[in-house]
Write a structure and sequence with these properties.
With 239 residues, the chain is an alpha/beta fold. It has one domain: 3-Layer(aba) Sandwich (Rossmann fold). The protein contains eight helices and ten strands. Strands 1-10-9-6-2-3-5 form a seven-stranded parallel sheet, with helices on both faces. Strands 4-8-7 form a three-stranded antiparallel sheet. The longest helix has 18 residues. It starts with a strand and ends in a 9-residue tail after the last helix. The structure holds 2-amino-2-deoxy-6-O-phosphono-alpha-D-glucopyranose. 2-amino-2-deoxy-6-O-phosphono-alpha-D-glucopyranose (GLP) binds next to β6 and α5.
């Protein structure tokens, strides 16, 4: 079941997302949250950090990570998640991807740690320009496990915008679609006109491996999208 809320702009989207996440945290202080990086959720995390929330019992679970980077590499997605979410909110428990040298063992360990938490309560996700969630690149079925993936040219191109002159690693680890779709609730944040076509496909087409985000139609999903992402500048909102 998907609910879509259309927000005026990226700022109102961040406020609404922070409202929903804050409410979930107050309801369950030991919330397990799957945490996306990328540009879209950054304003939401900054807004959350400005609010008077106690996240000391929350567990933050990493969504994706490049393969083969050192801990201190500026491109590390764990580093990005730590700076934007874990530290500003005072989070004390984390489940990370890519902590152990053997990536396959790391994936198994990650899924076991998520299972030990009782699964994910809340997944806060962005939408890849090719419809990926985390790094679940198309084509990708709903049962895809946490695993090593090779990034598609579309993802290499979109991720290049994050790192200036540094090359984007070509392989990555991603929480599986099984972890994402098993979440008690998913909040998908979508901002900007460049996401308009892929958002429409994710919501309107029957679920398909070609658009991994379309599997969210079968999950408890709230889409928070700004008007630009919905292709609506005024008047009645999408869909
Ligand atoms: C990236 C990441 C995702 C992110 C998505 C959207 O490639 N792997 O976790 O949510 O693409 O990113 P952005 O919010 O910068 O558009």
């Amino acid at each position: 079941m998907v609910g879509v809320e259309v927000l005026e702009d990226a700022d109102t989207l961040a406020e609404r997302a922070a409202d929903l996440i804050g409410d979930a945290l107050r309801e369950k202080p030991s919330l397990s949250v799957l945490v996306a990086t990328g540009h879209t959720p950054m304003a939401t995390y900054a807004e959350l950090a400005r609010r008077d929330l106690d996240a000391s019992a929350l567990t933050a679970v990493q969504l994706d990570e490049y393969l083969g980077l050192g801990e201190d590499d500026p491109r590390s997605l764990w580093g990005w998640m730590r700076r934007s979410f874990v530290e500003p909110l005072g989070v004390k428990q984390v489940v990370r991807l890519g902590e152990v040298p053997d990536p396959d063992e790391g994936c198994r360990r990650f899924e076991a740690q998520v299972a030990a938490l009782g699964g994910i309560d809340l997944a806060v996700l962005g939408l890849g320009p090719n419809g990926h969630l985390g790094f679940n690149e198309p084509p990708c079925g709903p049962g895809a496990r946490t695993r090593v993936v090779t990034l598609t040219p579309a993802s290499l191109a979109s991720n290049a915008a994050y790192w200036g002159d540094l090359p984007v690693p070509t392989r990555a680890l991603t929480a599986g679609m099984d972890v994402i779709l098993g979440a008690g609730r998913v909040i998908l944040l979508v901002s900007g006109v460049h996401k308009r076509d892929i958002l429409a496909r994710a919501l309107r087409e029957p679920p398909t491996p070609e658009v991994p985000a379309s599997w969210l139609q079968d999950a408890n999903t709230t889409v928070l999208a700004d008007r630009a992402a919905c292709g609506v500048t005024r008047g009645p909102a999408f869909p």
